Amino acid sequence: MNTIMSPSTQENVGMTDGQIEKTIDTFRAALRKHKGEFKTDAAQQAVTAKDLGSDLFAVFRGYVERFSDMIVRIASVNRSRTAEQAISATNRKQYVNAEVVAAMPKGTGDEAKVVFFKLGRYVNDADLDKEYASRGLIPADPFSLATVNEADPAFADEHPNATHWKDVNGKLCYAAFSRWFGERGVLVYRFGGGWRDRWWFAGLASPQN
User: Which residues contact 31 (CB under 8 A, 6 or more apart)?
Assistant: First the structure.
């Protein structure tokens, strides 16, 4: 029997202070080794640049995600948008059914903690719901998922990601973000089939946990 684990349990609490200090020491050592390559005036402008911290963090996050089978992203979700606006804001080529987009579930809350997991094997939609449940998750609403991909357009390049839901008629629908033929795209359609091994699935903590 599968043991249901909350996302916080699976994340191993979080990065330790020791790991933070080790990361800083590693970067400090690299800077000292290469400091002669940078002019003082240019370096001063760099260290006071507004986006330096967020850019460095993005690089570190990319390294961590290379070794992860579960990824967490915090999304500030604009629920006042229409579904069409939420999809368009991702600035991706759209392969969508307008009717399915218009009826996308909106979700709740200004902030969403979106948990991505990868199975690394084929799975059908019925078994995928079991995989969500075993992790204490429910499928993420497409608004939250779109927000993650809007904030980080490159995320789906290495982590093609998706969620699914049932419409009012009980038909399975999905939203998926990836890169096809060298172009970033988003698919929103009805479909009841299966998922190949490359996909990362987006979830939110189940209200029961």
Answer: none
